[in-house]
Amino acid sequence: MYHKDQIRILLVDDEPNILQFLEMGLRNEGFQIMTAEEGVSAVNAAQEFQPHVVILDVMMPGMDGFEVCKLLKRMGQMAVIMLTAKEEVDERVRGLTAGADDYMIKPFSFDELIARIHARIRNQFPQLLSELRIGPFQIDDSRREIRYQDRVLSLSATEYELLKYLVSHHNRVLSKAIILENVWGYDFGGQENIVEVYIRSLREKLEDREHNVIRTIRGSGYRVDIS
């Protein structure tokens, strides 16, 4: 876990409406934000701002996102998530070959973008991880330990990752597909019902018999409510 106000995100898109939407949403999440509307400005902004994560449009006038990505990757450790309306496999391969760490197709889910940002930070900036208290939960990544109401939970490695993911995205409905992607990984070949099995186990360990801690949102997924 980490403090979001430590995370710098550079947004690069030549569509003002998308840029404004992303800037407002990510600022509300607590991240530090800088924006750029074309490639050269993006490179200059990255040199000044030193972002942890870059959300990068592909199709822009002048220098396109592929070239920008190559230049950004030469600067140092930056996680690049490419956004594009092009969904062809060749385009995705080109983006990943240019150095992108992730690739999303427009239109996209804002919640999914947040989840991918968290994944990049966990994977590429482990030094930002710290102990964090969220409501009745206390998560200590260094000890791989979660306390609930000051009681240490006995969790398997997967249960730990799942509960950490649910709690860190509290008050959001998370679908089984999103949970699978972010807890089990992109290459997981199993079925979605594995999520139900692990949710049931977590509820037992939380003594959540009434499902008031981990709520089932029928037809949508699961949500941990923390005020």
UniProtKB/TrEMBL annotation:
UniProt DNA-binding region: 129-226
SMART domains per record: REC (SM00448), Trans_reg_C (SM00862)
Top-level lineage group: Bacteria
Pfam families, per database record: Response_reg, Trans_reg_C
One term under GO cellular component: protein-DNA complex
The name this protein goes by in its record: Transcriptional regulatory protein TcrX
Provenance organism: Paenibacillus solanacearum
GO MF annotations, alphabetized: phosphorelay response regulator activity; transcription cis-regulatory region binding
Sequence positions bearing 4-aspartylphosphate: 57
This protein's UniProt keywords: DNA-binding, Phosphoprotein, Transcription, Transcription regulation, Two-component regulatory system
GO BP terms: regulation of DNA-templated transcription
PROSITE patterns in the cross-refs: OMPR_PHOB, RESPONSE_REGULATORY
Chain ranges of the Response regulatory domain: 8-121
InterPro entries: OmpR/PhoB-type_DNA-bd, Sig_transdc_resp-reg_receiver, WalR-like
OmpR/PhoB-type domain span: 129-226
